[in-house]
């Protein structure tokens, strides 16, 4: 049942029907001041940064993907090989199937063997903490491939509109805090496309969460996916009403950075290219993550994934060049156009 649902999700994303009506990441409204005299050598711009205690070559990350057992094996192995070559972090899809059963979908020790120096993030759902999961299961998820961190994903809206969804979300903040205090690796909390607000981010950080993936609106819409796979017209109508739910990624990155200045921040949700990535970093993100835009490449080959991120990297490098930013630290203070006032601001 669970494997079939994962397969349906994957098929809908690949069909191009997973983007909700009216959902926008907000990056189109942001514009850098163009620096016509950058005084830089484009080839010497440094895109490296640190994430989870490791230096990564560029500030990109593969966000969590999933599928049926055959697809998951292909996806995870291709991504691991590509991420090792690119030196970027890899977040795996939900490990619920692997923890509850025997089919690991490529989530065993071989994943670490394929990517020995890459930061790899394990992944469980917050809702499972109310259905029997606890420290033992979280530790098992980490141990499967010697993960550098554990992602706990929040998807209350998806669970609410999904007929098979987990609806009891009471007491989860304390349980997340318990994992933060008991696990030997940092905990990352991410949404799945509707956003983590500054208030929620502050509560999570206070419990010990090290990194917030805002995962705002603008990319994949899980309510649209659930409407597509609905068995009845009533189920489809309930899910469809939330097609434009959530806050834009760009606004959340800026707001969460202000609310949680010392937390790590991942920007995901509607990041379509390296220019969007540059904007997200300027607004406060440490790294930028993609899932659906990488999916087709991940099903083809590691080389296809490498090509995808090589294009993203060159776009980001040129954005740095044309803002006069020699590295990501400089990019974070690049000047932005204030469209309301008609002048350029340093804020």
TrEMBL record:
The gene is fni. Belongs to the IPP isomerase type 2 family. Involved in the biosynthesis of isoprenoids. Catalyzes the 1,3-allylic rearrangement of the homoallylic substrate isopentenyl (IPP) to its allylic isomer, dimethylallyl diphosphate (DMAPP). This is Isopentenyl-diphosphate delta-isomerase. FMN binds at residues 63-66, 94, 123, 190, 220, 291-292. Pfam families: FMN_dh. The keyword Chloroplast does not apply. Its EC number is 5.3.3.2. NCBIfam families: IPP_isom_2 (TIGR02151). Substrate binds at residues 5-6, 94-96, 158.
